[in-house]
Amino acid sequence: MKPIAKFAVAAAAVMALTAQAADTTPAPAPTYWGGSTWHDPDRGFLWYASPKPPKSDKPEQQPRVKKAYQQLTNKELGAEIERLLALAVEKQSPEAVKEYLFLQQYAMDRASSFSDVFRRTVWTTPELDYSLRSRPTNAMALASYDQQRDGKKATASDQLAKTHGMFFFFRGNCTYCHQLAPILKMYQRQYGVEVFPVSLDGGTIAAFPNAKLDNGMSQNFNVSTVPAVFLADKRSGRIQPVGYGVMSLDELVNRVYVLTSTQPGQEY
User: Fold this and answer.
1) DSSP β-bridge partners for residue 166
2) pLDDT digit string, tens, across residues 240-249
3) Is the pTM of this model over 0.70?
4) Residue 208 and residue 228: Cα distance in Å, rounded?
């Protein structure tokens, strides 16, 4: 083979290898100016690229997953009822109203079921039955309870006659004082508790014609309203307010019993 032919063959081989190497070289990343609006409609016309959408600072809201009614907690159930009610009022459509009513009906059934379980639990657990610990609710038991309690109240006032007395502060021009005076007189006669009437203005009262004029005692008792009744322990000198204003005889007896024979929260 001639030298010229050998050189041509070698050159052809080198060019083939170079072309093969060029084919394996990765293509450069596309640039704005290397693209075309015909192949990339979002590229923009000439050098005017389309503006990028603004980034939102708010996190993307996840799609709301609707739970079955039975899976809702009480708090979630209440919130869902409020939501469906607002939606039904806004849309005014039968479908929205039905969805709200179905959920409301479920909530009422759920509450009714709890109420039934509640009463069954109380029936079978005497420690939780309030009627057994305090005032009964049964009509027959209630009559017996009231009878026993009336006896305790009368006994308490009878026993106070030996150790206690009552101060009655009034004014001669006080209508309510004149209404309360006969009741106190009746209490004194029935239970033997002595009543000491004290007139703040020097006025008289028919039920207690021998009332004493206030000599500063009302200030010691902080009397600002009349009629006022105080219970005094003759042994210790302890003074305890019984009440202000008009009271019936039964109310007076009950207050004396509660204040002298029970503790706060007992028989309440």
Assistant:
1) 195, 231
2) 999 999 999 9
3) no
4) 15
